Amino acid sequence: MAPSSEHPDAPANDLAEQSSSAGVDRAAPAPGAGAAASGPGAPASAEASPLSRQASSRPRGRVVALTGAASFLGRNLIGILEEDPGIARVVAIDIKPPDTGGSKLRLHTVDLTAPASEERVAEVLAAEQVDTLVHLCFLSSPTPATAWAHELESVGTMHLLHGARQASLRKLILWSQTILYGAHPTNPNFLTEKHPLRADPDERFFADKMAAEREFNAFGAKAKGTTVTILRTAPILGPTVQNYLTRFLARRLVMTMLGFDPLWQFIHEVDAIAAFKLAIDGDFPGTFNIVGDGVLPVSTIVRLAGRTPFPVLHSAAGPLVAALWAAHAAIAPPSFLRYLRYVCVADGEKAARVMGFRPVYTTREALLDYISAQRLRDVRLLQETPA
Fold first, then answer.
1. Dihedral, CA atoms, 244, 248, 249, 252, nearest 10 degrees?
2. Which of 36, 245, 268, 296 lies at a C-alpha separation of 20 to 30 Å from 341?
3. What average pLDDT does the chain have?
């Protein structure tokens, strides 16, 4: 059965991050896009399929497609692309239309977990004359529904790429994360793109994203004339984003590991969005770490957030978190506890040198911006925003 927005085991705040949907074969312009009339009294030309109408004329400008268009990154990227005069059309592949859509937006609901989605993706990309495909169809937080997550992220990526092989794409961009490097006692102070991904392979949240990277790299090795870019973002913080990290810091009592105080780094939500726009505008083949400048120890992060640390022996933390995770009462599974013990900090030098990416916010500034908004939420002066 295809996943739906009401999956019983998926965190509600993470469902906006998925770009697979239960419906297929429906293309709709965004509100205000001027859809052609249809019905018994409509002209014969109006009975043609939306894809046929859209393919009848070549767009004057670039066409960018996004999976996960209703996610935090997708919504904000669409808003920026709508304002770019060089972008003729924005093609959204998601469960619902993003609320930032305007006259340039075209929505296609496609279930990426369905075998038939390969042909559907190829049809949409060809008919819309897409030149750049941005793949954001990944959960921002772990879920106990691991089978569903695997179908969405790993299998969905394979279906997407099989469909993309049948289209003439100029560029493919993938969202990945620096936590995939894994937290290990042997890690250097800064991990470069040359270091292997050593996150726990038994944890589906990591394994599916690492599999997606492998699929993209294999596609790039075979697809001539297509630029493949992978952006590994540090954990994203800011006033409006929600993920496992913001939920971790929103609790009054914050679990820490007794005797450990590793360094963390963040990327501000504005800088993460800017990095994707930079990758869309330019040609940067390869993998890039997208991180904020500077690092902070966990103890400082908890103190700045105004939370109370709750130190736990690491030998006891595993069974405790495992029980809470099984009861759907924990933010993340036990595999995330390693990041409370060991460092996992990425080097952003390559992105600065090759892409020209320079974050506006430091790690500390990203944290403080999140804290300012969270304090308003704590006293109910600011409503929660979707992930």
1. 150
2. 268
3. 85
- Residue count (the chain): 387
Helix or strand or coil: residue 247?
helix
Angle at 21 between CA 19 and CA 278, to 5 degrees: 15
CA gap 384, 231 in Å, rounded = 27
Alpha-carbon span 91 to 108, nearest angstrom: 7
- Tokens 């005069």, residue? 85
Q: CA triplet 311, 315, 316: central angle to 5 degrees?
A: 65
**Which pLDDT score, from 0 to 100, does residue 58 have?**
62
- Whole-prediction pTM: 0.85
148-172 confidence digits (pLDDT tens): 999 999 999 999 999 999 888 999 9
Q: What are phi and psi of 135, to 5 degrees?
A: -100, 105
Amino acid symbol at 208: D
For residue 198, what are its two tokens? 């050593």
Task: Work out the angle between the directed axes of helices 117-127 and 156-164 (0-180°, nearest 10).
Answer: 40
Q: In the structure, how many helices (H) and strands (E) does the chain have? A: 12, 14
Asked if 98 and 70 count as a contact pair (C-beta separation under 8 A), the reply is yes
Calpha distance 276→131 (Å, rounded): 15
Q: What is the DSSP letter of 30?
A: P
The rounded distance, in Å, linking the Cα atoms of 202 and 2 is 24
Strand 263-264 versus strand 296-297 pairing type: antiparallel
